Structures are given as C-alpha cells and as structure tokens.
Amino acid sequence: LVNQLHYAHNYLVKNMDMFKENHTEAEVETVQKHVQEARVKAMVELTEKHVAARDEVEEDVKLMKSLFRSQSKDKYKTKADVLRSIWAELPKYLGKPVPPVDEELLADMEQIPAVREGEFRHNWGIADKLYKSEAIDAF
Asked: Of 15, 56, 76, 86, which cross-links 81 as Cys (Cβ 3.0–4.6 Å)?
C-alpha cells in the first residue's frame, strides 16, 4: 500500500512539473486543486480496499484455525465413522433423504484410521505464531 501511494505521488509530481512548463499559472493552480482532491480520494479508496482485504484474510484464517482446533481423536475412530456422520447431516442441507451408503465401501473405510499419525491438531493449522528454524552448515 505504501509503495502504491508513493508511486502515485511521484507520478503526479513529475506530471505536474511537465504541465507547469506549457501552461499558465491559473491553469496550473486549477489542475493542482483537482489533482489534490483526486489524490485524497485515491488514498482513501486504496486504504479502504487494503483494510477490507486484510480483514477478509484474517476472518478466513480464524475460520481455518477453528476448523483445525475442532478435531477430536475420540469422536471418530475410522473414515467410515466420518462418512456416517456426514451422511447423517446431508438430509438437513439437501432437504430430501439420501440413499444408504454402500456397505462394501463402509467395510473398506473401517480399515482406515480417521486421523493419520502426526496430523492430529498439527501446529500449522492451530498455532497463532510459527517459527522458522534455519540450520547453518559449519563447513
């Protein structure tokens, strides 16, 4: 944002200097007045868009963190348990009943654990701050 505003300011100053070379003092004064108003409007608009984008990203981050923090090892033991709970919720959102889940699929999914080792509540999904560790090679 700062770079955009700085570029716009330098661009306007350079063009106003070129404009001054070929126009009268009254014309320059009129143009400067309008340019100043336009620059203020542009600064306000850019700042508002930047803040809105930042807030939108922050809301998405909060949503993702709440999703990762809601993980529970005890609630679902296998992928089949997860599928059953999703299947039970589907009629509420679709507004109509759903067909039963294939028993062979459920039997296959009973063999797969719901949470893989090392993925439960991973710090990349729930941490407020992450730190980067860099190894320095002594050689």
From this structure: 76
Residue 68 · residue 125 · CB < 8 Å: yes
Backbone dihedral angles phi then psi of residue 32, each to the nearest 5 degrees: -60, -40
Is the separation of the CB atoms in 78 and 135 below 8 Å? no
Q: Residue 51 corresponds to which tokens in the numbers above?
A: 């803040």
pLDDT digits (tens, 9 = 90+) for 71-119: 666 667 788 888 888 899 999 999 999 999 899 999 998 888 877 776 6
The pLDDT of 30-46, averaged and rounded, is: 89
Whole-angstrom Cα distance, residue 64 to residue 54? Answer: 15
Which of 37, 54, 38 has the alpha carbon at shortest distance from 1? 54
Q: Residue 61 and residue 108: Cα distance in Å, rounded? A: 34
